[in-house]
Amino acid sequence: MTTQRTQVAIIGAGPSGLLLGQLLHKAGIDNIVLERQTGAYVLGRIRAGVLEQTTCALLDEAGVGERMHAEGLVHGGYELCFGGARHRIDLHGLTGGKRVTVYGQTEVTRDLMAARASAGLTTVYGAKDVALHDFDGAAPSVTYTLNGEPHSVVCDFIAGCDGYHGVSRASVPPKALSIYEKVYQFGWLGVLADTPPVSHELIYSNHERGFALCSMRSATRTRYYVQCPLHDKVEQWSDAAFWDELRRRLDPQAAESLVTGPSIEKSIAPLRSFVAEPMRFGSLFLAGDAAHIVPPTGAKGLNLAAADVRFLSRALIEYYGERSRAGIDHYSEKCLRRIWKAERFSWWFTGLTHKFPETGAIGQKLQRAELDYLVSSRAASTAMAENYVGLPFEA
Ligand code: FAS
Ligand code: PHB
């Protein structure tokens, strides 16, 4: 058994783990990242696309914002499409000047991986059988195997950044956790294509056939989604079937100007609202999808993960710098106040834009009434806009 020593052992090399590792490194705090997949596999997962300003600021703080500023698309609004027409939500005007940046999670992860490698920090890819030990005691450690060889990491703290299916939350005794979960009875079929965007901003569409979203990764690469039955298999959807269904769910002008092409990635994601409370167990801290999941409608998943990492990195820097436990003792409650507001917004936005057969014809009528109210009321649009760009952090 090879034994390594570090201050913080980070499980997971997704955006949460890599961003935490970078912020800790810049503060002089030693850390090791253990990731069960290869780096290429992690980069191959197509996920989030919209960054809040606070997330961009955190990436700058981590020293990885250069390409995001050079290649990211700054958006001051998006459009809601319903009843055959589009209505712009003026994020910039309604929030005193805030915007969002369209820059794929894959690129964020790539930038973080590059920074970690150039700093010569330890990231173990292909770490199998990761197990957490004594995180509620005085000698926390993490064991794993690499190419069949056993390894141990002795540490002060463990950051569980290993996502919804990770080992960290699963290592907590069930009686110590309160789980809140809602599973939606539909999924998102997503397509990535090298085609020009149908519009210069995102379009969220409420249609009687189901939800659709027109997003993008650059001026030449698009990301589209249509709501699909929960048990559909991606093999059932040819590219032609996807483009036809997307067209049907858009207004005539967008349907007409949609440029189609071969999918370079196509996948179906389930939707759920999920929170595990609390997020700290002794020297184990959960961050990102390990602790919470939102339906992607509100573009909150990655941004919530970044917010957790902001709180956790500051708490650990305070601990090592001032030997103060205040930040780590309040980590969970501070994260959860923000998480639940984002859960609510994501649940509300999903309820407003997706088709729910169980609510019948009156359900669609009520959705249409709320959409009409939303685009005709500055107060209602402002409430939507301030949640979408990201609520201010509490002091
Ligand atoms: P991740 O899940 O990204 O990373 C966890 C890492 O831990 C993974 O690399 C995994 O391999 C590793 N890991 C797991 N178990 C391990 C173990 N036992 N040992 C070692 N490593 C382990 N958010 C949006 O804002 N917009 C979107 O459109 C959007 N679409 C999404 C689509 C899908 C299919 C999914 C699953 C999520 C989507 N999200 C979206 C949310 C997503 O972006 C997450 O919020 C984001 O990936 C969170 O990052 P992490 O917390 O790092 O978790
Ligand atoms: C994306 O580009 O993948 C994306 C954008 C906005 C969302 C969800 C996903 O609300």
List key phrases describing it:
395 residues, alpha/beta, FAD/NAD(P)-binding domain, D-Amino Acid Oxidase, Chain A, domain 2, eight-stranded mixed β-sheet, six-stranded mixed β-sheet, 14 helices, 37% helix, 28% strand, binds arabino-flavin-adenine dinucleotide, binds P-hydroxybenzoic acid
What is the CATH superfamily of the largest domain?
A: FAD/NAD(P)-binding domain
Oligomer: single chain
Instruction: Quote the distance from N terminus to C terminus.
Output: 45 Å
Strand content: 25-35%
**Approximate helicity band:** 25-40%
Structure commentary:
The model has no long low-confidence stretch (mean pLDDT 97). This protein has 2 domains: 2-75 and 101-180 and 272-349, FAD/NAD(P)-binding domain; 184-271 and 357-389, D-Amino Acid Oxidase, Chain A, domain 2 (2-Layer Sandwich). The protein is α/β, with parallel strands linked by helices. The chain contains 14 helices and 21 strands. The termini are far apart. It is globular and about 65 Å long. The strands form 4 sheets. It has an 8-stranded mixed sheet with strand order 7-6-15-16-17-14-18-21, sandwiched between helices. The chain has a 6-stranded mixed sheet with strand order 9-3-2-13-20-19. The protein has a 4-stranded mixed sheet with strand order 1-12-11-10, with no helix packed on it. 37% of the residues lie in helices and 28% in strands. Bound molecules: arabino-flavin-adenine dinucleotide (FAS) and P-hydroxybenzoic acid.
